[in-house]
Amino acid sequence: MHEVSICEHLLLLLAQEAKRHEVKKIVRVRVEIGRLSCLDPEALRFAFDAMAPGTVAEAAELQIDQPLVRASCEECGADVELNSRFDPCTSCSGTRLKLHSGQDMRLLEMEAA
């Protein structure tokens, strides 16, 4: 389960940012997980709940956004949003799509008390 190592890195990043901003307690963390990232949001949440105690984020609420995948169709040129890699173009039903998002994980926000 690579969500554990991702969570470990997230908690390290939160600790570094908290120190940089002289924050003692983080109460909310918002991340974005791409639908094509191969990360399981519930496994990440489980890892966060298990690993956060004893850190600056021990009482933090983890919010996970999973926006639609953005792509451009190489057949009609339309910019489209998809639920998965295998969805056809919503404009022309073409299947030659160039992905622009959906494969990453990003820390969007952290809220301190």
Describe the protein's architecture and organization:
With 113 residues, this protein is an alpha+beta fold. The chain has helices at residues 3-20, 41-51; strands spanning 26-33, 61-65, 69-73, 79-82, 97-99, 105-112. The strands form two sheets. Strands 2-1-6 form a three-stranded mixed beta sheet, with helices on one face. A three-stranded antiparallel beta sheet has the order 4-3-5, with no helix packed on it.
Gist?
The protein is an alpha+beta fold.
Count the beta strands.
Answer: 6
Structural class: alpha+beta
Seen as an oligomer or otherwise, the chain set is single chain
Global shape: elongated
Structural topology:
Elements: H1 3-20, E1 26-33, H2 41-51, E2 61-65, E3 69-73, E4 79-82, E5 97-99, E6 105-112
Parallel strand pairs: 1-2
Antiparallel strand pairs: 1-6, 3-4, 3-5
Helix pairs in contact: 1-2
Q: Which properties best describe this structure?
A:
single chain; 113 residues; alpha+beta; hypothetical protein PF0899 fold; three-stranded mixed sheet; three-stranded antiparallel sheet; 6 strands; 26% helix; elongated
